[in-house]
Amino acid sequence: MVKVTELGYLGIGVKDGAAWKDYAGQVVGMEVADDGEADRFYLRMDNWHHRIVVHTSGEDDLLYIGWRVGGPDELDAMEEQLKKGGVAVRRASQEEAMERRVLGLLKLTSPGGNPTEIFYGPQIQTAFPFYPARRRHAGFVTGSEGLGHVILKEDDVPAAYKFYTTMLGMRGSIEYRLPVAPGIVAQPVFMHCNDRDHSIAFGIPTDKRINHLMIEVQNIDDVGMTHDIVKARKIPIAMGLGKHSNDQAFTFYFGNPSGWLWELGWGARKATHQSEHYVGDIFGHKVESKGFGMDLDLESK
Ligand code: MBD
Ligand code: FE
């Protein structure tokens, strides 16, 4: 079977492009790049052309998610695999592939309605290294682990599990059992496709397509520095600093200008490839601001 190898890129739609440039650049320390296109700009985290396309189209939500495969043969085989599995898939045109700065591209939709792309051959700018918009201690953790992880809306959890395992070749399981109301237990599922503990999770009710994007830094001081900036700007913190039980990353969650969350973390362990589940986190992760769809009790217990 063909397997995706990493979460390669995201496209998001935003109302306030100026606020997003300030947030991604000055709060988070990404590079904001402009190719002179009126309707979009790019966020860089490494020497890829981009990891995030910000379309100023107004949705304030995820527009598409890009999963990588190794090369052209894997893309052909993936198209076959999806068709055999009954998934409606379209081979994108050369123009559409170039728009994403990749060599080849399939377009499909996940069971939860998330526009999903599978690509190979991203443009890597070897002579245009990552140049953060603000001072920072070190870079982001990307490489073979992709850009980070996302929690997406997938209302039919068994259908989503089947799609990400049998169609995209990922592995995972329920990793937490969290009481959310009398008689109701949230059981989020976390899936991996490389050494990153999880590249996607679902099973938490969300209004938008996306609940959060997690990005990881190489130096813990960048978590602290960003936390100071978030506090100074009074940006809402949905969940305070803490350490997850599954990836054991030290993280916190804060609002972005579109009203969903970014999670910034450091020190994640590698995927274990064997299922485990937890009833809480190691420490911290106390809910601070409600209403971001992360009103979960992850506190240690
Ligand atoms: C995560 O990254 C996360 O977002 C949640 C809710 C639980 C464990 C790890
Ligand atoms: Fe997360």
Structural class: alpha+beta
Number of helices: 5
Radius of gyration: 18 Å
End-to-end distance: 40 Å
Quaternary structure type: single chain
For the sheet with most strands, the description reads: 9 strands, mixed
Strand order of the largest sheet: 10-13-14-9-15-18-17-16-19
Beta-strand residue fraction: 25-35%
Average predicted local confidence, pLDDT: 97
Please tell me what the overall shape is.
Answer: globular
Bound molecules: 3-methylcatechol, fe (iii) ion
Helices and strands, in N-to-C order? EHEEEEHEHEEEHEEEEEEHEEEE
Number of strands: 19
Estimate the helix proportion, in percent.
10-25%
Unreliable sequence segments: none
Description:
The protein is built from five helices and 19 strands. A hairpin with a 5-residue loop joins strand 7 (about 105-110) and strand 8. The protein is about 20% helix and about 30% strand. By secondary structure, the protein is an alpha+beta fold. About 45% of the residues are buried. The strands form three sheets. The protein has a nine-stranded mixed β-sheet. It has an eight-stranded mixed β-sheet with strand order 2-3-4-1-5-8-7-6. Strands 11-12 form a two-stranded antiparallel sheet. The chain is globular. The site of 3-methylcatechol has 6 residues, from loops.
